[in-house]
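A quick aside before the break. I want you to see a complete sequence-to-structure record at least once, exactly as it would be stored in a machine-readable document. Don't worry about memorizing anything.
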Amino acid sequence: MFTHVACFRWVEGTDPADVDAITAALRRLPGVIPEIREYRCGPDAGLAEGNFEYSVVATFDGRDDYSVYASHPVHRQVISDLIRPRLAARVAVQFES
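That is the input. The structure line, written in tokens, reads:
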């Protein structure tokens, strides 16, 4: 298994409706990209100060499947159209799981 984790901070003034649209678009990806084994995403629960505001956790059978996801045109469009315009900061990690 191979896991990808990405965390986002939004620009000041990002509307909750925009975050809802991002969540809806991301949650459609497993139906479009069959290489995704498991996919979770959502806003931070707000339990600890300093956390990033949003996270995506995706698992794949291996690195090659992650690469398909990372470069898939629908995923890239979600990033360019919905995430990047609202993105203040991003951190990510991928690891064998």
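Two observations worth writing down. Residues 2-96 form a domain with the Alpha-Beta Plaits fold (CATH 3.30.70.100). The chain has a mean pLDDT of 98. We'll return to this after the break.
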